[in-house]
UniProtKB/TrEMBL annotation:
<protein>
    <submittedName>
        <fullName>Cytochrome P450</fullName>
    </submittedName>
</protein>
<dbReference type="InterPro" id="IPR036396">
    <property type="entry name" value="Cyt_P450_sf"/>
</dbReference>
<comment type="similarity">
    <text>Belongs to the cytochrome P450 family.</text>
</comment>
<keyword id="KW-0349">Heme</keyword>
<dbReference type="InterPro" id="IPR001128">
    <property type="entry name" value="Cyt_P450"/>
</dbReference>
<dbReference type="Pfam" id="PF00067">
    <property type="entry name" value="p450"/>
</dbReference>
<dbReference type="InterPro" id="IPR017972">
    <property type="entry name" value="Cyt_P450_CS"/>
</dbReference>
<keyword id="KW-0408">Iron</keyword>
<keyword id="KW-0479">Metal-binding</keyword>
<feature type="region of interest" description="Disordered">
    <location>
        <begin position="1"/>
        <end position="42"/>
    </location>
</feature>
<dbReference type="InterPro" id="IPR002397">
    <property type="entry name" value="Cyt_P450_B"/>
</dbReference>
<keyword id="KW-0560">Oxidoreductase</keyword>
<keyword id="KW-0503">Monooxygenase</keyword>
Length: 407
């Protein structure tokens, strides 16, 4: 069907800016302009901050096909890569590498994230969740849920797994926030990255000297064996530390807000003691909220014919999984939060070789949180107007900065 295939950039001169602004209205929905692009066609051109015009892949099926296509690269240093901000001049470990090096490094850290190992951590996570709720209930009947609960849960868990002292959480949470923010100046992000690398490198030194039973010590052993440089190990530590707490924390806070705004759905979750129903609810919240905004970014390394277009080698590709998860071809009535639907096909964890390494852990943490918090604090309510909340429009991970709640 090559006769219907157009080549590169037919709509480029009028390409809309990406990321698109979020309009007033439902804070859980993708920007209306992004939905409009989806309605208009499977492949669209958008304009980035630097004037480049990569392809926007709007439909679920094409998104999965491209994310699984070895003719695409995640290497941020390749010409044509659609960078979300001025390049930091520093690597971000294997999330921005291609196979075989990506696979080699990823394999070094997969073991603790397997379903079996993650399930063994469930009682410890339940204890963390219960302890934080005990602390909330022991104090005044109001709190910022982000600080009191949403951030500590995944931070405590990933610290334990990596062997990072939780006492340093203010330092790494603050610098992670700057690093993933699009509005921070490049120098600011560079400084935050350098601080985190320096911190992980020093920690790696301690792990090499006195290994413990944790992931960073395992990486230390590989450094000693010459399989990984110390810099690479520190970069991997930064990736795991950030990915391990920022994402899940935002799912906890934004998920709670979405449920408070949909009391019928919250009641379903609170009143069910069926682990399968809770697991299903987690999948639907992941689909509906899809907190990784700004799209998965790739560059074509060969010509790729898809969606009636040809993506030329060297052209940038953006896969906004938030609208993939709202594709009406795949999810009926996609803008409705429906905890009873089967949402397991969502692309909130990405797809293909870079599909989220931590997904079993994230799922388990969210299952424990969502099945405990509203049951133990059944009167939990929002202690502010929706319009008073400040949303994270400027970063790679969407969420709320603060979530005032009362009970
Ligand atoms: C609800 C929580 C989470 C969400 C929504 C999420 C989402 C994602 C997405 C969309 C990707 C794909 C990136 C791409 O294709 O460019 C990804 C990759 C990754 N995630 Fe997660 N993530 C979550 C939690 C976690 C946790 C708890 C960890 C634990 C350390 C983690 C570690 C990683 C790593 C290491 C990668 C890179 C994988 C690779 O490049 O091979 N994530 N995540």
């Amino acid at each position: 069907m090559t006769s219907t295939v157009r080549t590169g950039g037919a709509q480029a001169p009028s390409a809309p800016e990406f990321p698109m602004p979020r309009a007033e209205g439902c804070p859980f929905d993708p920007p209306p302009a992004l939905k409009k692009e989806q309605e208009q066609g499977p492949l669209r051109k958008v304009r980035l901050w630097d004037g480049t015009t990569p392809w926007l892949v709007t439909r679920y099926a094409d998104q999965r096909a491209l994310l699984a296509d070895p003719r695409t690269s995640a290497d941020i240093t390749r010409p044509g890569y659609p960078s979300s901000a001025p390049v930091r001049g520093s690597s971000f470990s294997f999330i921005l590498m291609d196979d075989p090096e990506h696979a080699r490094q990823r394999r070094m850290v997969t073991a603790p994230f397997t379903i079996k190992r993650v399930e063994a951590m469930r009682p410890a996570v339940q204890k963390i969740v219960d302890g934080l709720i005990d602390d909330m209930l022991a104090g005044p009947p109001r709190a910022d849920l982000v600080q009191a609960f949403a951030l500590p849960v995944p931070s405590l868990v990933i610290c334990e797994l990596l062997g990072v002292p939780y006492a340093d959480h203010d330092f790494f949470q603050e610098n992670s926030k700057i690093l993933i923010s699009r509005s921070a100046a490049p120098e600011e992000r560079g400084a935050a990255h350098a601080k985190l690398i320096g911190y992980l490198d020093e920690l790696m030194g301690h792990k090499i000297a006195r290994p413990a039973d944790d992931l960073l010590s395992g990486l230390g052993t590989r450094v000693e064996a010459g399989e990984l440089s110390r810099r690479e190990a520190a970069e991997m530590g930064v990736l795991l530390l950030i990915a391990g707490h920022e994402t899940t924390a935002n799912m906890i806070a934004l998920g709670t807000l979405a449920l408070l705004e949909h009391p019928d759905q919250l009641a379903l979750l609170r009143d069910s003691d069926d682990p399968k129903a809770v697991a299903g609810a987690v999948e639907e919240l992941l689909r509906y909220l899809n907190i990784t905004h700004g799209g998965r970014r790739r560059v074509a390394v060969e010509d790729i014919e898809i969606g009636g277009e040809v993506i030329r080698a060297g052209e940038g590709i953006i896969v906004p999984n938030d609208i993939g998860n709202r594709d009406p071809e795949v999810f009926a009535d996609p803008d409705r939060l429906d905890l009873g639907r089967d949402a397991r096909r969502h692309v909130a964890f990405g797809f293909g070789v870079h599909q989220c390494l931590g997904q079993p852990l994230a799922r388990m943490e969210l299952q424990v949180v969502y099945s405990t918090l509203y049951r133990r604090i059944p009167t939990l309510r929002l202690d502010a107007g929706l319009e008073d909340l400040s949303f994270k429009h400027d970063g790679a991970v969407y969420g709320v900065y603060e979530l005032p709640v009362a009970w």
